[in-house]
Amino acid sequence: MTKSELNALSPKFIMEKGVERYINYDNKGALYYYNSIIELYGENESAQEYVAWAHYEVGFINYMENRKPEAVASLQKVLQTLSPSKAPHVLAAKLLKKIESEQKKNEPPAVVTNSSAPLTNTPAN
Fold first, then answer.
1. Domain at 3-106: CATH code
2. How far, in Å, are 21, 97, 115 from residue 32 at the CA level?
3. Is the whole model's pTM more than 0.70, yes or no?
4. How far apart are CA 85 and CA 50, in angstroms?
5. Nearest residue to 102 (alpha-carbon basis) of 63, 59, 54, 45
6. Which are the contacts of 78, defined by CB distance < 8 A and separation ≥ 6?
7. Per-residue pLDDT tens over the stretch 23-44
């Protein structure tokens, strides 16, 4: 479906098409529909619940495909969306916390130096 065809459809219908693509393992197709909701209805006050869910789904797919920076950006947009339902906000916050925890686990340990000990270039014998 083209964007102009999608423009004639409800955000609910477009969301259902995205879910259909996702459950059929077509993440690229699902992202097309979810991003279409964001693009077409992002400023529409009556569609903010669908916009929030679309941002969440984009973030979740990016997370599952190991695109963490993109996932974080989408999940943060969920938290900025004024959705009447708090469910996408709760799920986005949980996934953001999980990503943060994973990043902390993967960070190399901090190098601890004793700054009071003098540094010398003399070899040990």
1. 1.25.40.10
2. 9, 26, 54
3. yes
4. 10
5. 63
6. 52, 55, 56, 59, 88, 89, 91, 92
7. 999 999 999 999 999 999 999 9
